[in-house]
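Sequence in, structure out.
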Amino acid sequence: MSAPDHPAFAVTADAAALILRGGRLHLLTIRRDRPPFVGSRALPGTFLGPDEVAGAAAARAVLDKTGLNPDDLHLEQLATYSEPDRDPRMRTVSVVYLGLAVDPGEPTEGEWLPVTSVPDEPWAFDHARIVEDAVERARSKLEYTTLATALLPETFTIPDLRRVYEAVWGREVHPSNFRRKVLQATEDFVVPTGDHRPANANGSGRPTAVYRAGGATALHPPLTRSHT
């Protein structure tokens, strides 16, 4: 069957970027400045160029729409959205990327929106659904991968790591159970640096060991939400 037998459609790439700020999970959003959905909240996105792959387009959308450096984000493909009526202009298929990062600062356009206070307002296209999918993917990936370290600086403590899990999962985690499970998980999940930090901001308390991310990508056994 030749190409003319198939209707034309466009391909876009969108980025659902998440950071940890003030102990809360935040999402990068913009306001659309052109039809359709003028003024509606949306994820940074763009049409693919003729010689461009989807991942590069998602990174370009972050830079062009928010001014943030996409190199600061860990971008991985989330899903493809292809419902026929998702874009009123024409048939559009979107390849969406989940982004995780240490806080890269304020965007020149758009804002970091706390996930727990996402306003109940119309979103552009099907982006409200995409946001739900992105947050749930992040929550589930923290159970069986080492992705949590992408939200932390180069060195961190076990309490720092626990706070990532608490922010993403939206629930408290038992400190001693978490520490035990992390240190019993995949050998190269976290690696001690040999340094220590004061347990409290005022310098008091028993010093806490400092770690860095290891080379592992999968956790075994997993850190499940129901048992951690």
